[in-house]
Write a structure and sequence with these properties.
single chain, alpha+beta, three-stranded antiparallel beta sheet, two-stranded antiparallel sheet, 18% strand, elongated
């Protein structure tokens, strides 16, 4: 979803590696598997398997050291616009369905029967919740959400980068499920 910098875990630092595509994904494969490992074991090991079993993939432990705030902002902005469009369409469909089912008219009749007889029915539910007002309110909330989500996600990316520099980031284990 954005540009993410990966940092090797402590057990794999110092290993020289080459980038090769394996099984549709990119991964770092060491040129000398035993180099830099305290135990002498290769960083990427083929999992032990029973005879006759299907081969299993390798696993790699990586650390998300930095998240690019600009990429996070762009991605969040696009996703927020998509969410806003979905919200506006959903509100329009919901209002249309409620109107077609006669829910607003039924509520107006119920309110008229409960209201005192000496007061005229000047305010109805359909005048308060007209299609235009509902769509205007939904559009306003959607614009506010676009701005807030984009700003908060960008701020979260900056905060993650600051915390990552202190504690090292999030460690992720990636697995190659393809047979070698």
């Amino acid at each position: 979803m954005g540009t993410v910098a990966y940092q090797q875990s402590d057990s794999a630092q110092g290993q020289a590696g080459t980038r090769q595509q394996a099984g549709g994904g990119w991964g770092v494969r060491p040129t000398n598997p035993a180099a830099g490992s305290p135990s002498g074991a290769p960083r990427y090991q083929q999992q032990a398997q029973a005879p006759g079993a299907a081969p299993r993939g390798r696993k790699a432990r990586l650390r998300v050291a930095k998240v690019d705030p600009w990429s996070v902002m762009k991605t969040t902005f696009v996703l927020s616009i998509a969410f806003a469009v979905v919200s506006v369409v959903a509100a329009a469909l919901l209002w249309s369905a409620l109107n077609a089912l006669g829910v607003f008219d039924s509520i107006n009749r119920t309110l008229a029967s409960v209201a005192p007889a000496n007061q005229p029915n000047s305010v109805t539910l359909t005048s308060v919740l007209s299609f235009g007002k509902v769509m205007s309110f939904t559009a306003l909330v959607s614009v506010v959400n676009i701005v807030l989500f984009t700003a908060l996600a960008t701020l979260a990316a900056y905060l993650y980068n600051m915390c990552s520099s202190l504690v090292g980031g999030i460690e992720v284990t990636l697995a190659d499920d393809t047979a070698s």
